[in-house]
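If you are new to this repository, start here. Below is one unmodified record pulled from the training split, so you can see the exact layout before writing a loader.
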Amino acid sequence: SIASKDIQRAEEVAWFFVDLNDVYKQMHRVLRKDGVAGIVIGNRTVKETSIPSSTITSELCEEIGFETIENNGRNIPYKTIPLINSPTNEAGIVGRTMDKESIIVVRK
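And here is the target side for that same chain:
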C-alpha cells in the first residue's frame, strides 16, 4: 500500500480524491436534469501502487446521483512526456508513465 511506504503521500492521494469528489458534486449541482458530462481521467501509479482512478471516478459519480453511460479506455495520442521515468528519483529504478486514459460519460 502507499501508506506503508509513505504516509504523507498516501494522505495527498486521499485528499486528491476528496477534492475531485467536490468537483463532481458541483458538476451535478449545475448540470440540468438529463444533462451529460464527459470526464477524462487516467489511472495512476503512486509508490508502485496502481490507483484505478477511472473506477473510483465512476463510483464517486454514481454515489452523487449520476448514471455512468460510458466508460471507455483509450491510448493517449501524441503523448509528449516519456513513456518511462524514475518515479522514486533513485538511479536504476524506472516505471511506466500514464499511456492510457478513460473517457467517462455521466448523466444527471
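Two things worth knowing about this chain: The chain has a mean pLDDT of 87. The helical segments are 2-5, 7-30, 53-64.
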